[in-house]
Amino acid sequence: MLSAVVGINWGDEGKGRMVDLFSERFDVVCRYQGGNNAGHTVVNDKGKFILNLLPSGILSETTVNVMGPGMVIDVEHLTHEIERLRAGGIEVSPKNLKISDKAVICMPYNKLLDCLEEDRLGDAKFGSTRRGIAPVYSDKYMKKAFRMGDLLDFEAVKKKMPFILEWKNLTVEKGYGSAPLQAADMIRWLADYGLPFADYVCDTTALLNEAVAQGKSVMFEAQLGALRDIDFGIYPYTSSSSTIAAYAPIGAGIPGKKLDEVIGIMKAYSSCVGEGPFTCELFDKSGDELREAGGEYGAATGRPRRVGGFDVPASKYGVMMQGATCLALTKLDVLSYLDKIPVCVAYEIDGERTEDFCIGGRLDRAKPIYEYFEGFKTDISACRKKEDLPKAALDYIAYLEKQVGCPIKYVSVGAKREQYIEMF
Ligand code: GDP
Ligand code: MG
User: Ligand 1 pocket test: which of 8, 15, 17, 21 has the largest number of ligand atoms within 8 Å of its C-beta?
Assistant: First the structure.
């Protein structure tokens, strides 16, 4: 069984929380794209954990976790992330964590260049998380990156470094006028933070193919939502990797296998971090109330997230691009304070109403068309069965299902592992 758990919206839909729930059912959990530019918050009986790089299955004792070739890994960040988990009593070792030899290392100069460029852009900034993700993916496609497998031949790394830095300094020093990068510093950084992971490095293709041959179940965990996909998202306000389910087998290491199931994680309202078009955005007091009710502050950066009502055109597009076979609706409990639930049912573009999402200039001109649905006005966080939910909540769920054209199989009513309802 190969399953992907992916985001339908702009990210932060609660993927980490759902993956944590599902991960116990899977033998292997893989991250297939991105780096430490986003965060998952998982609350379980061991405590509250923020994961930026590690697959969420790391919190489940029996799961093998894979960081696939599609990832970019800041090994210094990974070191600290693992230290925090160990302090919370979580075991992380080469037994339960496998890192692809093809995953790219996010270097300190990638981070530096991310910051230099955002600063240069000033008010026109992209809203980058400044974690070096766009620069490191650029290096990957320039074929000038270091990969995790390179750590297994450190002498070759030492030889390659001056050549890479000669090229980097053309930008860092001659372009931005920043202090030139020194090979000795970068080699020391890799020795300090990279080399300790040498024992974790493996060929995840061999590992995953063997797991599949043995009938084991594999889950692919996305880090960002459909609308952040480099090709199909709100470019250029996207991430630099492929976030959609179709890429999961490639980014994890088994491109020859097909997915059996795609679980789309969709939030009961909308949130978005950073710049870019976000048609359903609520700016007034109602937006502030929703942000507070949902605790919408970035897990990786602490930035306040932009919020809005559920966005029908965007979510319908997300469901289609992910090829979702079922959905998990998250954070429905957050809406209990509302008398009327705001839903962005369509967009008005150039004076015309449309339910279809679009990318580019048209999206920049889109205005939200809002309708209001009856609120349920009761605390639903203790509901565990469909029958426990008030009628207004059930009506809301049925409406969303119909609009996006995909069944909602799970409804999450709280951040804790057990706070969910299986609808069928
Ligand atoms: P991810 O990036 O998609 O994994 O999502 P984040 O972890 O960035 O954001 C989701 C936030 O909502 C986290 O703080 C979760 O603990 C919390 N959360 C997830 N599901 C629910 C839910 O159903 N109800 C409530 N109230 N909080 C939730
Ligand atoms: Mg997140």
Answer: 17
Residue 40 a catalytic site member = yes
Give me the number of domains the chain comprises: 3
Q: Report the distance separating Cα 113 and Cα 109, nearest Å.
A: 6
CB of 333 shorter than 6 A to ligand 1 = yes
Q: What atom in ligand 1 is closest to the CA of residue 43? A: 16
- Within a 13 Å sphere around the CA of 102, how many CA atoms are in the beta-carbon half? 16
15 lines ligand 1 (CB under 6 A): yes
Best residue among 270, 271, 303, 331 to mutate for probing ligand 1's pocket (most ligand atoms within 8 Å of CB) is 331
User: Rounded distance, CA 10 to CA 12, Å?
Assistant: 7
- Distance, CA 331 to ligand 2 centroid (Å)? 13
pTM over 0.85? The answer is yes
Domain ranges, residue 211: 2-100+203-263
Query: 289 and 350, same structural domain?
Result: yes
Same domain for 14 and 163?
no
- Domain containing 158 — which CATH number? 1.10.300.10
Tell me the two tokens of residue 311. 């966005």
Nearest CA to 54 among 44, 64, 43?
Answer: 64
| Token digits of residue 76 | 């210094």
Helical (H) or strand (E) element with 121: helix 108-121
Task: Identify the helix (H) or strand (E) that includes residue 409.
Answer: strand 408-412
- pLDDT for 129-159, tens place per residue? 899 999 999 999 999 999 999 999 999 999 9
Evaluate if residue 98 carries a pLDDT over 70. yes
Q: Does one domain contain both 233 and 334? A: no
Ligand 1 neighbour 211 (Cβ under 6 A): no
Å from CA of 126 to ligand 1 middle: 24
> In a 3-state reduction of DSSP, which class is residue 402?
helix
Instruction: Provide the residue type at 59 as one letter.
Output: L
Q: Report yes or no: 132 and 114 within 8 Å, Cβ to Cβ.
A: yes
Q: 320-342: per-residue pLDDT in tens? A: 999 999 999 999 999 999 999 99
CA angle 353, 356, 358 (to 5 degrees): 105
C-beta separation of 413 from 333 below 8 A? yes
